[in-house]
């Protein structure tokens, strides 16, 4: 009985060509081999299958009954392998119904999802994008497993198998309602410290603005706080609280909520937002398409 380990791909190709050409010289030319090399390969093939397989006659190399039984399966196997080798991961956005899962924070959802959904409906009407909240050490694991396709944000420790591309850098802005009695653009640090503040998300990377406020003398423990950015415009529009948030959030929330914003009198490092994906899906057609869509829609300089 032939074992798979005894038969390499070239032997199966030789078998297929002999079935078609019935001539060792023709097969040698077709495979760009010498005739002795083809004869040697045929001996190995006969040994592996324990059968002559092809017998020399006046009509050429004719297949034995065993070779005739092998003809169909070998031809099918080689065809499937050839198809797999030639296959390219072609993604047709216009017809695909693929569903993508993209990890981002709530402030990321506010900035990215409205425009991303709008563009997706235009270019890929059947594609769906799910925003998922997976943060911390769980995010690299979820991406490695394939349960998350992309991540957008400012995440650390994403692992060696993760690739990334910067989308943009942004500073921070301080939001306050239009009717606020004392807040105004250009206010100094002393006046800023005297205001009541809404503290948002102490988690990285947004915790850096809170650290800057503490260094400036703002006692965070004396102020209100919320864990997420999504509630900030609602709270600020109904109170005299100030909230220092990423500037893109401030710009998008100002008009709908009747707010104003200013550059805070703080030294806060710029916040860099990146697009992350796994190396193993770097050449996946669908993943490439969504990455390009995000980059073309949101990246600075695109």
UniProtKB/TrEMBL annotation:
Keywords: DNA-binding, Transcription, Transcription regulation. The keyword Magnesium does not apply. It comes from the Bacteria. The keyword NADP does not apply. Coiled coil: none annotated. GO terms for molecular function: DNA binding. Residues 7-64 form the HTH lysR-type domain. PROSITE patterns: HTH_LYSR. Belongs to the LysR transcriptional regulatory family. This is LysR family transcriptional regulator. It comes from Achromobacter mucicolens.
